[in-house]
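From the pipeline queue, job 12 of 40. The input is one protein chain; the requested action is below.

Action: predict structure.
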Amino acid sequence: MKVEFEKIPEGVNSQLTELIERKLQKLERYYENIVHTVVYLRENGGVSKELEVKLIVKDQTLFVKEDATTFEEALEKAIETMSRQLKKYKDKLKEK
């Protein structure tokens, strides 16, 4: 799976981007045919951090947007939400 980063704010180090990539790679255990992933990172006035993940699968685009005090917290929330979305998507494919 290819992970692409858009709009990375200043001060975000490579350790964070590597962590995000590792966590997103683990989503392939829920659905292995993920085509492409785009990650958006934003700081909201220094108060909160926002992380958006757009996951492109076979016939659909899954999207999650999370806010937290750190990017790591937002990432954990996003991974949890995205894993649920992938499970639902996979279940719908099995029903067809």
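Job complete. The CA atoms of residues 41 and 51 lie 5 Å apart.
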